[in-house]
Amino acid sequence: MITGFDHLQLAMPAGKEDAMRAFYCNLLGLQEVAKPPELQSRSGFWARAGKLEVHFGIDPNFRPATKAHPGFRVDDLAGLAARLEQAGHLILWDKTLPDVIRFFTADPVGNRLELIAEV
Fold it and tell me: Are 54 and 46 in contact (CB under 8 A)?
């Protein structure tokens, strides 16, 4: 039986590693972690938020995920929204769920993300 998540994989087109690192590590605050030596020759990178690892891999047939998306919990949602807006990212607040404070945005390659206030 499944007992939890080991990692989440997000795709990107070739040549976008720097933009994705800047977004996920600098703006969102993930920490880049070393890939195992056996995988270091492959492009992409890995990052971590708490116990969750996010692996960023190159997809030669990349198309942004505009419906499927990760939902990340955030301890300062308003602060993150302000940082993202300052950096030019569109923030779409969603009040569909009355007890959930959240917004949607897209990463530099168009993948949809949901950011949810930590309660």
Answer: yes
